[in-house]
Amino acid sequence: MRRVGILIAISCLLSTMALGSHAAGVDSSDSSEYLIKAGFIYNFAKLVEWPATAFAQPDSPIVIGVLGDDPFGTTLDRIVADKKINGRGIAVKRLKWSRDFKSYKDCNILFVSLSEKDHLDNVVEAMRLLPILTIGDAPGFAKRGGIINFTLEDNKVRFEVNVEAAKRADLTISSRLLTLAKIVQQVAADGRKSE
User: Fold this and answer.
1) What is the pLDDT of residues 22-64, one digit of tens each?
2) Which contacts qualify for 81-84: CB closer than 8 Å, 24 or more apart?
3) Using CA atoms, how far apart are residues 148 and 6, in angstroms rounded to an integer?
4) Would the N or C end of the chain have less CB density within 10 A of its end CB?
5) C-alpha distances in angstroms, 151 versus 48, 51, 79, 182?
């Protein structure tokens, strides 16, 4: 029953996205797209399990980092405001590119903005073995080692999941989420699928 509720909610979100893009101009459809993506990020947080070591305290918040240009504006903050997941609040922080990576490691979810496409491989490699759910919307993000990649198909937001990358990060993704995703494998530098 719960799965049906999630499927209905996601279908409604996708329908809203499709209707909004036809009825509005470019700026409005962009905001609709990122409203949908923000909703997905919140739902991903509910459907992913982190190891206990990922949090300093039992009530530490789930920290969502947005790396690079923030396409969400205040939308992501509004969606997660006053929400709790398993007794944890949710905090959003904005991050700028740095080779130090220290500030990224404080996140439980790291959304890598399209503005950081030149740094994707560096970020993915640095986060690779950490319990951080990496999410991006650059083409091929999941195939390059990110965990979740947003895509657009027929003006609808969809997502891909790299299950192996999630395992390396010691994250457990709910099978309910995986049934809605396109599963992809990481492609090695030589163009072959990694094993």
Assistant:
1) 333 334 446 799 999 999 999 999 999 999 999 999 899 999 9
2) 83/42
3) 18
4) N
5) 20, 28, 21, 10
